[in-house]
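To fix ideas, we give here one paired sequence and structure record:
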Amino acid sequence: MKKGDAESAIRALCHTWKAECFPATTTNDLHFSDFAKWIRDRQPDLFEFRSTMGAIANAERWFDDEFGQAWRN
C-alpha cells in the first residue's frame, strides 16, 4: 500500500470509527490504541506501508491531527 493512500483512508476512517463506536464521546477522550485495534480487525493492510517513522507512528499522528490531539505529542 502507498503511504498517501493509507493516509487518506485512515483519516476518513477516524470519523467513521468515532461515529460507530464513540458517538457521544468528546474527541479529547478518544484513544489511538482503540482505533488501531478497530483498523486491525477490519483492514490491517492500512498499516502496511513504508515510512521512516513507521506506519503505526504515522497513523497515530494522522489520528491526532483529525481529532485535534496533536498537542499531546
About this structure: Residues 6 and 54 are 13 Å apart (CA to CA). Residues 3-72 form one domain. The two ends are 26 Å apart (CA to CA). The chain has a mean pLDDT of 94.
